[in-house]
Amino acid sequence: MAEAHQAVGFQFTVRPDGVDLKLSQDVIKNIYLSGVTAWKKKAIQFKNGVLAGVYPASPFSWLIVVIAMMSSLYTHVDPSLGMMDAIKENLPYRECVSVQTRAVLSAILFATGLWLFLIYLLRYTLKALLSYHGWIFESHGKMTTSTKMWLVCVRLSMFSGRRPLLYSFQASLPRLPVPSVDDTIQRYLESVRPLLDTKQYNHMEILANEFKDSKAAQLQRYLVLKSWWATNYVSDWWEEYIYLRGRAPIMVNSNFYIMDLLYVTPTHRQAARAGNVVHAMLQYRRKLERGEHAPVLRALGTVPMCSTQMERMFNTTRIPGIETDIVQHLTDRKHLVVYHKGRFFQVWLYTGGRHLLPSELEMQFQRILNDTSEPQQGELKLAALTAGSRVPWARTRIKYFSQGVNKVSLDAIESAAFFLALDDEPQGFDPAKTNSLDGYAKSLLHGKCYDRWFDKSFTLISYPNGKMGVNAEHSWADAPIVGHMWEYVLATDCFHLGYTEEGHCKGDVNKGLPHPSRLQWQIPKECQQIIETSYLSAKRIADDVDFHGCLFTEFGKGLIKKCRTSPDAFIQLALQLAQFRDQSVFCLTYESSMTRMFRDGRTETVRSCTAEAVAFVRAMEDRLALFRKASEKHQNMYRLAMTGSGIDRHLFCLYIVSKYLGVDSPFLKKVADDGYGVSYIIVGENLITFHISSKFSCPDTDSYRFGQHIRKAMIDIQALFKPENDKKTAEHVKIVPVENGKKHI
């Protein structure tokens, strides 16, 4: 172990004439450098905390105000309107201090108070300006005079002459507003109208009106009260009740994945790629801990997004509980845990007060890959506990992992910066291999069900062919947060760190680093049986995932924008058309929209299956006019969700309040586990990737077939914008029949 390696630097021998103490200069140097690094880090965090805390002002602006107030002592002009004189007369120990000193102190105190007042005034002015959302409802490329004036005011409020830090705008973000009950119910009924027949809709309308007239007002008052008290009236309940209280397995059901670059692999050496990527992640973490990343801005680089979710990206683990899990976030973790062929290794990330270099990390990972030792009893599938149901895992953790070597090893995993899995089977997209993207996605989503630690904030996955990927736990943050980090890491890996001609990491190798250490386990037979049960449960879920990855290369957002429509609305309507062609019915559709324009905001639901979308799909004759109407409706729904006027989060919170108060409402009860899950990414101007999942156990769905429907729907809709004689392009895509009734995978 690293601690044991360093301990040998201190040796002493007890002799009759005293104690002979020997100190290793290398160890003393490492200790000194580690201490210097720690204090330097604290100093930088304190400095950046002050800079973010007073933004848009600066510490230098305080000095300017003080000098201005001090100069008034000699010009006999009192800008404080007598307040400085009052402060001077009420200073303690006035008899011990000269009149001139008291005057200077009063000027400094008044200047400091004035400076703080101006900071708060600027913040609340900016908060009021950011509460305006008219800009988001305006057509692309058009801007009203009021929005132009608003834009100028926001930029003036944000101007400070220096670059904002990650958390500079947190105190200026508005709170998520609570929509009115009438608006939410009206939008809800509008969203379900195309999905229900007349009898069902009339029944739902009765339930909604009964709820509005009887219980809604009481529940709404509690929500409004919470919105005044908490920074966000949704997010804490959303995290607790949607994620942490769920007792079902989080693998597949909750965790999500992020892929590597599809067409580029910087090196085919597994250890080298992992070394560069881990080093890039450590660089990202250092900037994150110091708050040095630039905040995410929208609307011409003017509207800041909330950065709260980024705080728990590293050093974070979801801890299982009997009734509810908790998210454990630690600070300043200096190691990661690596899984390879059934063994767990601890790798230290620092030496001499600095991060390990990419070449040093490559050497450490190569040492693990070269290790031929066998897994200990019960070690191979140990991580399957995190893939199964939460209650058995919580009970097993208490019974078998709360003391001894098991506790030490589990603590090492749960306190690690993150988890790294060195897989032994290559993955990645290969145009020459059928279904290569499908296998890659399933590997990232669930792997073998025992080679990912699904409770960690994220598991970094490395493949023998140099490909990488991420499996992320969902409770602590949403996908865009991990996406921002992954973009930074890939850019740093490819464009800043680079590789040698042989594919190794650049830099010298320090072979004196201590070897990675094996985590030790003592797992009895009873615990091994529980692990096997969790594994079999997780494997049933993984085997039921029907996944198809569809690369749509016919056109991308470049051509869609030339049609003067939103790429997101275009794709959503294509999904509705594909769904109807596949199932001959419409279904409730959940599209996630972010609410990070508000403090501690996460997501809201956009119900994409609108009456306008249904009308477009049913009538593909008057198609272009109906498409534009449906597209505009979708965009308006998306904007309402982003600006805090969505449906589902408000109903969710009303439901939680009703449970606290013991109020029963049939209207607030009503969710399907079948259907399709579709994730899509618009890549550049000419590529859209669709990730389609369903369940083999659902007899009506087929992910491959649905991907074909999406492809044809995209082309059919794009053909609406072409001259009639050019629509033959749409006929080039045909639906491939399912062979022998079996699903493609």
Automatic annotation (TrEMBL):
Topology relative to the membrane: Multi-pass membrane protein
Any stretches that span the bilayer, and where are they? 50-74, 103-122
The name of this protein is Carnitine O-palmitoyltransferase 1, muscle isoform
* UniProt keyword Coiled coil, yes or no: no
Q: Where is the signal peptide?
A: none
User: What residues make up the catalytic site?
Assistant: 474
What InterPro entries does UniProt report for this protein, alphabetically? Carn_acyl_trans (IPR000542), CAT-like_dom_sf (IPR023213), Cho/carn_acyl_trans (IPR039551), Cho/carn_acyl_trans_2 (IPR042231), CPT_N (IPR032476)
Entry GO terms, CC: mitochondrial outer membrane
Q: Where is the Carnitine O-palmitoyltransferase N-terminal domain?
A: 1-47
Could you tell me which residue ranges the Choline/carnitine acyltransferase domain spans? 176-669, 670-711
Main location (coarse class)? mitochondrion
Which gene is the coding source of this polypeptide chain?
cpt1b
**SUPFAM superfamilies this protein is in?**
CoA-dependent acyltransferases
Q: What is its EC number?
A: 2.3.1.21
| Keywords, in A-Z order | Acyltransferase, Fatty acid metabolism, Lipid metabolism, Membrane, Mitochondrion, Mitochondrion outer membrane, Transferase, Transmembrane, Transmembrane helix, Transport
Q: Which GO terms describe its biological process?
A: carnitine metabolic process; fatty acid beta-oxidation; long-chain fatty acid transport
Q: Does the keyword Electron transport apply?
A: no
- Gene Ontology molecular function: carnitine O-palmitoyltransferase activity
Q: Which organism is it from?
A: Salarias fasciatus (Jewelled blenny)
